């Protein structure tokens, strides 16, 4: 039945049945060992790797040809492979940590049936990645797709269900809502044991408001700051690669480039050499008008080639163009270029020095992207530390683009993932990459030590002036 025809009672019954199946499947794998789930995780990664071409073409077709097919395939090759290479060193079952003296032991236990809210941008990779995380801790997963990509999301989940069946495990460890709706997703969030929301601000807010424990992620809108000591050619090349990566579909894609005045003109030239097209004032307005419709990003325009976007806007760019640029001098809600663009389009800003750059980055992120990420391109270590310390972000890439590196890469130590927490800045409960440790509960088993001696007061509070703690007022009921 299509979700439009379902009554409230029918939707509740359908979700309740899915949750019950998930719990039954969890009971059936209760005795699996750490090695058992590692084998499952590696098998999921292998299937994702082997089916990368098929899954990516399916997504490309259902999502209207948006994005860049080569990038979609690369994601499904690199991230599962990177995760699979890590699982031998990860503990998610039974005793995961033990005090050498035996006074504290930590035991991992499943969260339960996890509801995962899947965005339209990266459904294939996210499902594969979260399946690895979820099954490594013996959870069941129910995926709720974006309506625009519900067929491919179900397709991927069904492939993974078949894999589990071939391995002799319950298929219902993984399930997917066939005909999603806002109401169906709301019911799922309320009936699940845990929620992981990857998507827009409204989705994350709904997850946190569901009454079920939840991990949400904040909006993207990464900003690249180019210092006066930066390697301009390498920086421009990295920005080009980030913009071409699935044509800006990733939340980590650079959306703004803030450039020190001393190297501004040279950096613009470097970006042009990498295929950047600098819009004039008239083209900039046309670009804004086509990217946003009624205050929201135009789904028929975003995550497409710069040529497609420019044509829709009413101007032409060369076939060699790899991304569009528009100079900006104002930030705020009244200036759309301040916001996340989900396309190979970047706003260009000029600042007089590092501190002005930090201030601008924080101002832009106060409108969109708080807590997510930024990068600094500089040879000055003091500048790098100051930038990282004063920007309101959870991730700061140094001399690297965020678009290709935030969620893990073979040449950095960021945890592989498709979901990035943004801390209190972004309205999230955590400021880390969503990974294995976020998919299990921890029971702390503690024993009393033979010694029970309080620390020496004079040693602990040494250096505090006694005058700070005297002559306070007395309490009175009058």
Largest sheet: 7 strands, parallel
Helix proportion range? 25-40%
Strand content: 15-25%
- Spatial strand arrangement across the major sheet: 10-13-14-9-8-15-16
Output the number of helix runs.
15
Low-confidence blocks of residues: none
How would you describe the overall organization of this protein?
The protein is an alpha/beta fold and 478 residues long. It has 15 helices and 17 strands. The strands form 4 sheets. A 7-stranded parallel sheet has the order 10-13-14-9-8-15-16, with helices on both faces. Strands 5-4-3-6-7 form a 5-stranded parallel sheet, with helices on both faces. Helix 1 crosses helix 7 and helix 9 packs across helix 10. It is globular. The termini are far apart. The mean pLDDT is 95.
List the helices and strands and how they pair.
Layout: H1 8-28, H2 34-50, H3 52-62, H4 69-84, E1 94-98, E2 104-110, E3 113-117, H5 123-136, E4 140-144, H6 150-166, E5 174-176, H7 182-191, E6 194-197, H8 201-208, E7 214-216, E8 222-226, H9 232-244, E9 254-260, H10 264-273, E10 276-278, H11 281-291, E11 292-293, E12 296-297, H12 306-313, E13 323-327, E14 345-351, H13 354-367, E15 374-377, H14 381-390, E16 396-398, E17 440-446, H15 457-460
Parallel strand pairs: 3-4, 3-6, 4-5, 6-7, 8-9, 8-15, 9-14, 10-13, 13-14, 15-16
Antiparallel strand pairs: 1-2, 2-17, 11-12
Helix pairs in contact: 1-7, 2-4, 2-5, 2-6, 3-4, 3-6, 4-5, 5-6, 9-10, 11-12
């Amino acid at each position: 039945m299509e979700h439009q025809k379902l009554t409230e009672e029918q939707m509740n019954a359908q979700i309740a049945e899915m949750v019950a199946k998930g719990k039954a499947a969890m009971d059936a794998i209760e005795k699996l060992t750490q090695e058992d789930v590692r084998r499952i995780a590696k098998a999921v990664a292998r299937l994702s790797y082997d089916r990368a071409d098929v899954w990516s073409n399916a997504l490309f077709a259902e999502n209207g040809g948006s994005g860049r097919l080569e990038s979609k395939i690369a994601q499904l090759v690199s991230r599962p492979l990177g995760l699979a290479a890590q699982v031998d060193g990860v503990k998610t079952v039974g005793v995961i940590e033990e005090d050498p003296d035996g006074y504290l032991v930590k035991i991992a236990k499943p969260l339960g049936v996890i509801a995962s809210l899947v965005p339209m941008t990266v459904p294939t990779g996210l499902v594969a990645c979260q399946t690895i995380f979820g099954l490594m801790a013996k959870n069941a997963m129910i995926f709720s797709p974006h309506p625009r990509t519900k067929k491919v999301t179900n397709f991927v989940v069904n492939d993974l269900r078949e894999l589990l069946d071939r391995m002799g495990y319950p298929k219902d460890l993984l399930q997917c809502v066939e005909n999603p709706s806002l109401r169906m997703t709301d019911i799922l969030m309320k009936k699940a044991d845990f929620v992981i929301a990857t998507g827009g601000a409204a989705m994350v807010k709904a997850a946190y408001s569901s009454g079920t424990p939840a991990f949400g992620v904040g909006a993207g809108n990464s900003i690249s700051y180019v210092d006066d000591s930066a390697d301009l050619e390498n920086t421009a090349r990295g920005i080009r690669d980030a913009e071409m990566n699935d044509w800006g579909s990733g939340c980590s894609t650079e959306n703004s480039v803030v450039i020190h005045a001393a190297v501004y003109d040279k950096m613009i030239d470097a970006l042009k050499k990498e295929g950047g097209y600098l819009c004039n004032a008239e083209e900039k307005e046309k670009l804004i008008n086509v990217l946003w419709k009624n205050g929201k990003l135009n789904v028929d325009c975003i995550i497409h080639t710069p040529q497609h976007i420019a044509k829709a806007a009413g101007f032409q760019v060369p076939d060699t163009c790899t991304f569009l640029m528009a100079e900006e001098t104002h930030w705020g809600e009244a200036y759309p270029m301040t916001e996340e663009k989900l396309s190979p389009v970047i706003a260009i800003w000029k600042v007089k020095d590092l501190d002005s750059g930090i201030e601008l980055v924080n101002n832009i992120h106060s409108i969109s992207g708080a807590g997510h990420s930024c990068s600094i391109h500089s040879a000055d270590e003091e500048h790098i530390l100051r930038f990282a310390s004063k920007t309101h972000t959870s991730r700061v890439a140094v001399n690297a683009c965020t678009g290709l590196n935030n969620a893990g890469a073979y040449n950095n130590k960021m945890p592989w993932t498709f979901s990035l927490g943004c801390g209190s800045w972004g309205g999230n409960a955590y400021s880390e990459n969503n990974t294995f440790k976020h998919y299990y509960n921890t029971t702390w088993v503690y024993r009393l030590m033979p010694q029970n001696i309080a620390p020496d007061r004079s040693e602990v509070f040494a250096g505090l002036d006694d005058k700070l703690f005297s002559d306070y007022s007395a309490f009175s009921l009058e």
